[in-house]
Amino acid sequence: MKIAARLRQATKKLAATMVATATAASLAVIGGGVAHADNRDWLRPDATGACDWDAAMYWVQRCDVYSPAMGRNIPVLIQPAQRGGDAGFYLLDGMRADDNQTGWTKYVNAAPAYVDSNLTLIMPVGGAGSFYTDWNGQPMMSSQLSGGSRTYMWETFLTAELPAYLQQNFGVSPTNNSIAGLSMGGTAALNLAARHPGQFRQAMSWSGYLTTTAPGMQTLLRIALLDSGGFNINAMYGAIISPRRFENDPYYNMAGLAGKDVYISAATGAWGPGDWNRPINERIMGSGLEALSRMTTVAWESKARRSGLNVTADYAPTGIHNWGIWNDQLWKTRNRVLDVMGAW
Fold first, then answer.
1. Which residues cross the membrane (predicted)?
2. Using one digit for the tens of pLDDT, what is the confidence trace for 225-239?
3. Could you tell me which of 203, 178, 316, 333 has the C-alpha nearest to residue 257?
4. Which of 5, 36, 65, 178 can pair with 202 through a Cys bridge, CB separation 3.0 to 4.6 Å?
């Protein structure tokens, strides 16, 4: 009997060891090769019960965050701070934001850039054509959206609902954040930081459109919104003379950026070494979009400097409107973000 009992005890210990080993191995895979388990090695609660490990790896969790303002769950990809720091870094998508996956992991993988930092990376999913603002016309109709309509209250979500969730479940302070975005997201990053100065300490626009009410811009934006989702720009801001159009134009909405670290970038639209292998239509379209971004960004910078803002500008001599230059900016600004946020 004693021999049998010892055998049973040994078997249980062996099984426990195997389970622990398998768990550690799975965490190493989920963590994208990161060897240590830390503040990141457990899934947080979300609106559906618990977050899921995302295919981006590097400890990125996919969390469904319920938005009362929009009446639905909004997926957010979140990489927790390595050692429990309270700084957050929001990355916003461009005009054609995907409802299922952010471009920051679909076209590039932003997670490796901050995997060793004490900063929480926050990547909202969705918001095509929204400019991440609260729309006047609710809900909007769009033939290209499943279900035919969608409520857009992105500013409320990003500045009230999501921060509350992040503070409760990831320890992110509502007042210790940086925000960056590409193209449409760059426009929104400067707007949100200016309109909510208590939330963001740093704002960065990469190929954003920073003078949206300049002559001809409303027509171009109207075409872009129709093309990206069948949206009517009047549903976003109301009539063409609505004050909200100017309140959400970074050119007129910069007072709230006083005292913050502001970084802007845009290329010329000239084809660089990485652009020649792209289809000719992509090169032509990308050139025009980036040249327009450059023009509006330079105009914004001129006024910002006259206003006394702390602005750093990076104007690349070549590059078209695509993920190549935005991935470059992600890595180029990494140390700047960690310095400003004190999140090394």
1. none
2. 999 888 999 999 888
3. 203
4. 178
